Structure formats: C-alpha cells, structure tokens
C-alpha cells in the first residue's frame, strides 16, 4: 500500500477493479481546506483516460511492475508484434495499450511494463523522442521563415505532424513521442 505522496508519472495502481497508469498528476495545496492530488489515469485494459482527485494521505493500491526491453517488429491491423531483446520471445499487444502507436517505426526498441503477479503486459513506454523521415509535405516558400508558421507533414510511419516551413521531403526530423510534436531537424 502506498499513499498520495508516492504518486508519480508512470505509476500503475489498482482503482475501481481495474489497473490504471498515472499519466499526469498535480499536488494542490489550497489556502483553505485540505490538500489533494489531481490525477489523469489511463486504463491499461481499455485505454480509456479518466480524471480523478485523491485527498491527501489517501491510501492507493500500487501494482508491482517489471520492465523489459522489446523491439517492435510489425503491425497486423490493430495488433502490434514485439520481440524480447534478451530471449527473442515474441508478444502481441493491442493498439489501445500503446500511447502513440502512429510514431512507432519497425525496429524501434521500447520498454514494456509487466505486472509481476501474473506477467501480463500493462503498457508500452516509447523512447522520449524518435527520428523519422518526412515522406510528404508541401514545399516551403523562400523567405517565409521569419515567423513560427508551420505546415502539415507526413512521416514514414504515416503520422501527420506540424513542422516548420523549411522542412522538405526526405528530411529527417526528431519527434517528441509524448505530445507527437516536432523538436528539430536532424543532420546526418
């Protein structure tokens, strides 16, 4: 058993007969009244995100997890196939258990959290950023780079990302996986 002071991003907890992963939290200490923790929880079974507020000192039932590195192999519809980098065992996960499946490139190494009680996969943690090649975008207009204007671009995984006007087809860009936003152009 843990309490609200142990809440952190990525913690898996049992709540309402389901297992949830904390994706956001905020400790609030109002001037009047007791402190509380405002959280955003994602169900690892359904992928549904809910908001919940825990009062300070509330006991939470945390789930012991184990992390393992897996390499993404391929997708078959809504089923994603991964291979353990240590023993080469393969597992399949549904698209709903991934945070940003449209940014996942074949061969990418991810971290999968497993429940230690029953060895069931709970969620997939992507790397903080991925490098993807732009496959389609409109050409930029020369001299129109003084503002922070952006244009839509399609990357090799099929995801659509807003990029600055100077990005062209064939450029490699670094994309933040948590928000799915452009970070920088990558020189080779």
From TrEMBL:
GO biological process, one term: peptide biosynthetic process
Alphabetical list of SUPFAM superfamilies matching this protein: Nucleic acid-binding proteins (SSF50249), Translation proteins SH3-like domain (SSF50104)
Cited Gene3D superfamilies: 2.30.30.30, Nucleic acid-binding proteins
NCBIfam families: efp, PRK00529.1
Keywords: Cytoplasm, Elongation factor, Protein biosynthesis
GO molecular function: translation elongation factor activity
PANTHER family noted in UniProt: ELONGATION FACTOR P, ELONGATION FACTOR P (EF-P) FAMILY PROTEIN
HAMAP family (UniProt xref): EF_P (MF_00141)
Source species: Flagellimonas pacifica
Gene Ontology CC entries for this record: cytosol
Pathway recorded for this protein: Protein biosynthesis; polypeptide chain elongation
Domain Elongation factor P C-terminal: 130-185
Subcellular location: Cytoplasm
Protein name, UniProt field: Elongation factor P
Residue ranges of every copy of the Translation elongation factor P/YeiP central domain listed in the record: 67-122
Family assignment from sequence similarity: Belongs to the elongation factor P family.
Function in brief: Involved in peptide bond synthesis. Stimulates efficient translation and peptide-bond synthesis on native or reconstituted 70S ribosomes in vitro. Probably functions indirectly by altering the affinity of the ribosome for aminoacyl-tRNA, thus increasing their reactivity as acceptors for peptidyl transferase.
